[in-house]
User: Which sequence fits this backbone?
């Protein structure tokens, strides 16, 4: 219903009371500096157009009063209705009067409702550890974990987060990645009645401890001081030791006496943590494996590598290696290195001692081994033994694994053949030979000399080769790649007499300038 006051006017002339609209209740939030006193500055003129109800503002005036009597008398009007200081629940009287006919007026009233802005808390910083090394001080934050801390007892309040630079809304607050460290964000809290309060949230990334190494620990009796590697890290770090990875990750069940830990060969887990700057921030840590070695001296292997002797033990501790007997030309020496270089070939006895005083004695026959290399290799047409890759000294090639069937280094490679290489050091040739199986990359009859032709094939007596350009020479090889015959041609046509050759397969290598081609020929 309209809140209108009907006035009886008596004068010589009769006046019509203006037909005004019903003003609305003005609802605002207490946004001034005194946010809890239920009073603030309000723009009353939001009701001007409503109460004029179509009347021309050029013909009718609108004024506001704190009491009905003031409105009737037209006295003590509110001087600045655009920013009137009023209280919650206060009634304001509004008067519409005809300009030039002040006795022609109507009065209505409306209420003021001032809602209290939400009471919120300034949150503590949201702090996380760097996710992984290296430390880049960037990570993902769930900002909403701070909602309850910020809103406190504000029932039904909603929280929004904004970039501080341009105050734009962060649309995915559950997965926000910082780009500076620390970073400050703006926060807006809205109550159920639409009133807003503001604060800021600082997010920060703490570093992980850098990895400084975790060398193996050794023990002679199975009792380990797990703290031996602690001095590799900052003295302020918290270092604890655990039997399982799960315990280390959860920081539960640390070893109570890490300086006297009993164990066989195995591992324990070390948690290296940086103390938190304050109790509200996380402790950033890394988990490392610590290898434990009970120093039982065991020789895993001894081998000749060229003219060197290499001894391999079961751990990487420092050992003392002593030659107690050796060939006459070898010196009896002691050293910490497990590699004895340039040793004469023959029988040796080594005495090895570890830091626990354990000693082991081994005897070894130092013989020259085969050269090193891939046992299967490829080649292209026209390549020879010189093109195979083998590592050793004074390499010599053979057609068989044993025996004296020596091959020339210029022996032409044959697809599918196996060639055997030995090496010679200090006048001693290895009895072991490296077998290398070769595979031709292209087919034997692939033409590499344009214009080359040959006939007949199979051949009994004379084999003829012609070419559009000069043929320099022709060579004949058997299936082992051994050279049987070579002859200079220096003409566009050449012949080979096969009549004295045994029946079988031969390879004809034709050279013309920089080009070569190998031909497979059958002798009948």
Assistant:
């Amino acid at each position: 219903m309209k809140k209108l006051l009907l006035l009886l006017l008596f004068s010589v002339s009769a006046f019509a009371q203006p037909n005004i609209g019903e003003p609305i209740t003005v609802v605002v939030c207490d946004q001034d500096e005194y946010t809890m006193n239920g009073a603030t500055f309000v723009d009353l003129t939001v009701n001007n157009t409503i109460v004029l109800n179509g009347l021309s503002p050029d013909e009718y005036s609108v004024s506001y009063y704190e009491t009905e009597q003031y409105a009737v008398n037209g006295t003590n009007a509110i001087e600045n209705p655009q920013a009137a200081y009023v209280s919650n629940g206060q009634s304001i009287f509004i008067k519409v009067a005809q300009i030039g006919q002040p006795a022609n007026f109507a009065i209505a009233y409306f209420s003021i409702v001032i809602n209290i802005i939400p009471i919120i808390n300034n949150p503590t910083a949201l702090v996380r550890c760097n996710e992984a090394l290296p430390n880049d001080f960037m990570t993902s934050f769930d900002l909403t974990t701070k909602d309850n801390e910020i809103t406190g007892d504000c029932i039904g309040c909603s929280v929004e987060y904004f970039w501080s630079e341009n105050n734009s809304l962060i649309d995915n607050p559950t997965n926000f990645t910082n780009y500076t460290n620390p970073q400050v964000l703006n926060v807006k809290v809205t109550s159920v009645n639409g009133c807003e309060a503001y604060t800021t949230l600082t997010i920060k990334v703490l570093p992980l401890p850098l990895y400084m190494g975790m060398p193996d620990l050794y023990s002679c009796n199975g009792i380990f001081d797990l703290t031996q590697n602690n001095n590799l890290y900052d003295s302020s770090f918290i270092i604890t030791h655990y039997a399982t990875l799960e315990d280390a990750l959860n920081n539960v069940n640390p070893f109570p006496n890490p300086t006297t830990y009993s164990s066989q060969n195995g591992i324990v887990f070390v948690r290296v943590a940086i103390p938190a700057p304050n109790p509200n921030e996380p402790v950033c840590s890394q988990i490392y494996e610590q290898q434990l070695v009970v120093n039982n001296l065991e020789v895993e292997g001894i081998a000749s590598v060229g003219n060197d002797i290499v001894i391999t033990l079961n751990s990487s501790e420092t050992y003392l290696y002593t030659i107690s007997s050796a060939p006459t030309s070898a010196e009896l020496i002691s050293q910490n290195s497990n590699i004895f270089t340039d040793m004469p070939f023959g029988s040796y006895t080594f005495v090895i001692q570890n830091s626990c005083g354990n000693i082991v004695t081994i005897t070894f026959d130092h013989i020259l081994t085969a050269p090193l290399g891939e046992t299967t290799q490829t080649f292209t047409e026209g390549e020879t033994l010189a093109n195979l890759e083998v590592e050793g000294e004074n390499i010599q090639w053979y057609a068989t694994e044993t025996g004296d069937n020596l091959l020339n280094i210029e022996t032409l490679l044959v697809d599918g053949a196996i060639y055997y290489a030995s090496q010679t050091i200090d006048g001693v040739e290895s009895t072991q030979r490296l077998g290398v199986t070769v595979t031709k990359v292209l087919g034997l009859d692939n033409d590499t000399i344009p214009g080359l032709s040959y006939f007949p094939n199979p051949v009994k007596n004379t084999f003829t080769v012609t070419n559009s350009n000069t043929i320099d020479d022709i060579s004949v090889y058997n299936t082992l790649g051994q050279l049987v015959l070579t002859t200079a041609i220096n003409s566009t046509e050449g012949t080979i007499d096969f009549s004295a050759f045994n029946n079988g397969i031969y390879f004809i290598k034709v050279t013309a300038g920089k080009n070569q081609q190998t031909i497979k020929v059958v002798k009948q």
